[in-house]
Amino acid sequence: MRTIKLTYPHTLLLDELPETAAAIGFFDGIHEGHQKVIKTAVNQAKYNNMESAVITFHPHPSVVLKQDVEHVQYITPLQEKQQMLQRLGVDRLYIITFNKELSSLEPQSFIDHFIIQLNIKHLVAGFDFSYGHKGKGNVQTIDAHSRDVFDVTVIDQVQAGDRKISSTRIRELLQSGEVERANELLGRPLIVRGIVKEGDKRGREIGYPTANLAISNDVLLPRIGIYAVKVLFKNEVYEGMASLGYNPTFTADRDEPIVEVNIFDYNNDLYGEELVLEWHHYIRDEIKFNSAGELIRQIEEDEKQIRRYFAHES
Ligand SMILES: Cc1cc2nc3c(=O)[nH]c(=O)nc-3n(C[C@H](O)[C@H](O)[C@H](O)COP(=O)(O)O)c2cc1C
Ligand SMILES: Nc1ncnc2c1ncn2[C@@H]1O[C@H](COP(=O)(O)OP(=O)(O)OP(=O)(O)O)[C@@H](O)[C@H]1O
């Protein structure tokens, strides 16, 4: 898959670009609804002998449009999005810089510059897609803006339990620890990747060594707590327990939560390695214990519960 970053105005030339079927949207999470939109574009491309593309934006529009938002955390940060789109068979990824100038483009200018000028012959969007200044363009106006140069497929609402599957809904589920439900709407487990860095080396002393992960600050994490996780490392899958929190039993003033994982039945050195965690099940909130002994007893219980969880799940 080729990734092409575009900032308005771009200088790509129409006659140097292949005819393309493209899906358009922000697509944070690449959930089941997004997958339907994207797969439709990939299939249209195959059927019409065209290239397939996804047209997306970066950063999230809220950074530009909302005054109080400076930094957004993503269910799928750019790197993750790229890998998933590649797996879905997308040939090109256009990433349009979302800035003030872009947000002020009139709907027709947006279509002229970013759809027609990119040689898009078939556009796939969800039923609630909007474009152009103040979102004035939508799936009702798109045919009129197409200048009869491209066809449009609109995807009906993909639902779970009578409600639209959306990035917003998945974020809410993650904030309340409902990772299993979030995973259902995503159509796969939520993942986070990180490099193993040095921790306080206390884990070994308490009998539960943990790999502490350095995680990019644009990654959306679920709510603070203890989780049943799977760990993907060098083509192997392990089971384990993760703690996402501030370790209040030992530290009083940590600003940022840390993610650490105890991998079951594994005790080699992992410093510097990249681990991918799959979040499967929320066990409990983190607790400030009065002693290391109490914490250890609780972790023993956590381990039993998580081993039981995986034994019944598989
Ligand atoms: C399954 C699990 C549950 C944990 N629960 C708590 C908790 O409830 N409260 C807490 O203060 N720390 C908790 N921790 C974090 C430990 O305090 C931490 O792993 C230990 O201090 C080692 O830290 P280090 O890796 O930085 O050396 C938990 C860790 C694991 C693996
Ligand atoms: N459940 C869904 N069913 C069908 N199409 C969808 C669904 N969710 C999103 N889409 C479409 O996918 C594209 C990307 O949408 P967008 O990134 O706004 O996702 P979203 O999940 O609706 O996000 P948010 O919750 O932030 O509004 C758009 O074309 C949108 O209409």
Automatic annotation (TrEMBL):
Transmembrane segments: none
Enzymatic class: transferase
The keyword Ligase is annotated on this UniProt entry: no
CDD domains reported in the protein's UniProt record: FAD_synthetase_N
Domain of life: Bacteria
Residue ranges of domain Riboflavin kinase in the record: 185-311
Pathway per the UniProt entry: Cofactor biosynthesis; FMN biosynthesis; FMN from riboflavin (ATP route): step 1/1; Cofactor biosynthesis; FAD biosynthesis; FAD from FMN: step 1/1
Recorded GO MF terms: FMN adenylyltransferase activity; riboflavin kinase activity
InterPro entries associated with the record: FAD_synthase (IPR015864), Riboflavin_kinase (IPR023468), Riboflavin_kinase_bac (IPR002606), Riboflavin_kinase_bac/euk (IPR015865), Riboflavin_kinase_dom_sf (IPR023465), Rossmann-like_a/b/a_fold (IPR014729)
Catalytic activity: riboflavin + ATP = FMN + ADP + H(+); FMN + ATP + H(+) = FAD + diphosphate
Keywords: ATP-binding, FAD, Flavoprotein, FMN, Kinase, Multifunctional enzyme, Nucleotide-binding, Nucleotidyltransferase, Transferase
Entry EC number(s): 2.7.1.26, 2.7.7.2
PANTHER family: RIBOFLAVIN KINASE (PTHR22749:SF6), RIBOFLAVIN KINASE/FMN ADENYLYLTRANSFERASE (PTHR22749)
Family statement: Belongs to the ribF family.
Protein name per Swiss-Prot or TrEMBL: Riboflavin biosynthesis protein
Source organism (scientific name): Lentibacillus salinarum
